[in-house]
Specification:
Elements: E1 11-13, H1 17-22, E2 25-28, H2 32-38, E3 43-46, E4 54-60, H3 67-74, E5 91-102, E6 114-129, E7 136-137
Parallel strand pairs: 1-6, 2-4
Antiparallel strand pairs: 2-7, 3-6, 4-5, 5-6
Length: 149
């Protein structure tokens, strides 16, 4: 029997321009980006390892979750009423701290072969529209929204 997801209330955070420019960003497909902040997803599975430790911006990919994938998630306890259309897409939605990169874990979120261990999720007060890319990437000054200090 699968565990019921644990809803959490993420802390809110308003980033400065210098904060966005200083830290790497990683794209996650929805709803996994949202799960980091609302369900306590503490692992991000990847085929590669990283030496990065510290703040990591979380970008919600632009691709919409397919109906087939939604049906798989809806079959899990706790996802019956999950509103995929209310999620942010194509935007940086928050920041986490990467505290380790592991090749095995007992976390319910671990699928391997490697995973970034995530802690201290902070959801941005407003998503920041941004086109994503593969791997870790950085904001450029030209990517920053107008009026951000």
């Amino acid at each position: 029997m699968k565990k019921r997801p644990r809803l959490v209330s993420p802390r809110k955070f308003t980033p400065s321009a210098s904060f966005l420019l200083a830290h790497p960003c990683l794209t996650l497909r929805q709803p996994h980006a949202e799960f980091v902040f609302s369900l306590g997803k503490d692992m991000e599975n990847r085929s590669w390892q990283t030496k990065h430790r510290g703040p990591l911006l979380i970008h919600a990919g632009l691709a919409r979750t397919t109906l087939a994938r939604r049906k798989v998630l809806w079959s899990d306890p706790g996802f019956e009423d999950f509103d995929f259309d209310a999620l942010a897409y194509g935007a940086v939605i928050g920041v986490v701290d990467v505290v380790d990169c592991v090749s095995k874990s007992k976390s319910q979120w671990f699928r391997g072969p490697n995973a970034l261990v995530l802690a201290n999720p902070r959801l941005f007060t407003r998503p920041i529209p941004k086109k994503g890319t593969l791997g870790m990437f950085h904001f450029r000054k030209s990517d920053l929204p107008r009026g951000l200090k």
